[in-house]
Amino acid sequence: MNNKHKDEIEDFDKKQDNVGEENTDKTVENFAEPTTNDNESLEERYNTLNDKYIRLTAEFDNYRKRTAKEKIELIKTAGEYVIEDTLPIVDNFERALKNMATTTDVSAIKEGVELIYQQLMSMLKLHGVKAIDTEGKEFDTEYHEAITTVPAPTQEEKGKIIDCTQKGYILNDKVIRHSKVVVGE
Q1: Is the pTM of this model over 0.85?
Q2: Fold topology of 130-185
Q3: pLDDT averaged per 10 residues in sequence order, the chain, 185 residues
Q4: Which residues are CB-neighbours of 145 under 8 A, at least 6 positions away?
């Protein structure tokens, strides 16, 4: 190898060493302590984020209180619509009672009571209430409550409902009162 070529390689190596040192010096400068401007901008950023956090926390707390208040109000007035629809039926019962004192026609009183009953059942149906059908049905613990068992009159009536002593009702696909029934065994 000639000297010229050897000198070029050494110069190149020195330049490479210097480049690494320059980059290292710049990198060290970047990681040096932040300046006052950096501290101020970081503090400003911290204060902004802290303020947003405090506002968001307060807003969520207000939302929680508002929804709790609305829930309580909803519970208080939940039955309002049912009561409003029941009041005309009460009025009709009062009229019937008043007329019973002066009317001797039993068939008119009977017809009036039947009309009031139909009005009540229509109102219940309007609000999602329906009677549980028991006549000739198999006993089902989801809908029926057996109060007693009796010997079945026929083989086909074993495990079936013989009599219903109290109707059961469903409100929007949920049993609110089981039918009280007598089951054949």
Answers
A1: no
A2: Nucleotide Exchange Factor Grpe; Chain A, domain 2 (2.30.22)
A3: 64 63 54 72 94 97 96 88 93 92 88 95 94 91 94 89 95 96 93
A4: 168, 178, 179, 180, 181
